[in-house]
Amino acid sequence: MEKQRHSDFAAPVSPARDILDHSGRRLARYWPSWLAPQAQARLWDQLQALPWQQPQVKLFGQAHPIPRRQCYLARPGCHYRYSGLLLAPQPFPAALEPILTRLNALGQWGFNAALVNHYRDGRDRMGWHRDDEPELGPKPDLAILSLGQERVLRLRWQVGPSEGVALAPGSLLWLEPGVWHGLNPSARASQARISLTFRRVIPGFHPDREQGITGAD
């Protein structure tokens, strides 16, 4: 098994900075160059082998494929549901283990799951949402590692204008619990982007059993 090099985790070219809303309240914290370029390239190649899916969600009674591909990685027993989709965990690839260790040392977040999103070009997107699923606990942390095409993530609180942050390849973004976020389509984004969104899921919490949801399989 290939070992992760210490140099894979780059010292930021500039200090981590806070992303603030119009009132000065912090939305997120941003590390612009957390993962070194050579490590980004290796990880990108290894993620291509994931069992990508493009599930359908119901909107106004009609089924539509989500506008991106995704794969859910997690420790055993860490089920996750959003938008009516129950995601059964795939095991973490070996290449992600040292990244997960480094992340949890940085913030003491206890991340044990990652939803990996593949945006094939600027047409792929993510609508406005916030993490409020019960299996994430009362104040869930979320960290986003970005690879590939730079895209602008919009951030806001429930009320108020949004702020945009351009997520450079290799960057890391931690969101304050409860922050709404979304990725708009972009005509200027011609290349693919992969985002790894790390979360802590309560082990053994099964959304179907806890919420009385049936037919998820």
Characterization of the model:
Substrate binds at residues 80-82, 132. This is Alkylated DNA repair dioxygenase AlkB. Residues 110-202 form the Fe2OG dioxygenase domain. There is one protein chain. The chain is mainly β. The protein has a single domain (28-207), classed as Alpha-ketoglutarate-dependent dioxygenase AlkB-like (Jelly Rolls), CATH 2.60.120.590. It has 3 helices and 15 strands. The strands form 4 sheets. A 7-stranded antiparallel β-sheet has the order 1-2-13-10-15-8-5, covered by helices on one side. A 4-stranded antiparallel β-sheet has the order 9-14-11-12, with no helix packed on it. The protein has a two-stranded antiparallel ribbon with strand order 3-4. A hairpin with a 6-residue loop joins strand 11 and strand 12. The longest helix has 11 residues, at 37-47.
Short description:
With 217 residues, this protein is mostly beta strands.
Reading the helices and strands in chain order gives EEHEEEEEHEEEEEEEEH
Shape: globular
Question: How many domains, as an integer?
Answer: 1
Going by helix content, strand content and strand pairing, the class is: mainly beta
**If classified by CATH, what would the architecture be?**
Sandwich
* Helix content estimate: 10-25%
As residue ranges, the low-confidence spans are: 210-217
Strand order of the largest sheet: 1-2-13-10-15-8-5
Mean pLDDT: 88
| Largest sheet properties | 7 strands, antiparallel
Number of distinct beta strands: 15
Q: Compute the gyration radius: what is it?
A: 17 Å
Number of helices: 3
CATH T-level fold name: Jelly Rolls
The fraction of residues assigned to DSSP E strands is 25-35%
**Briefly, what CATH class?**
Mainly Beta
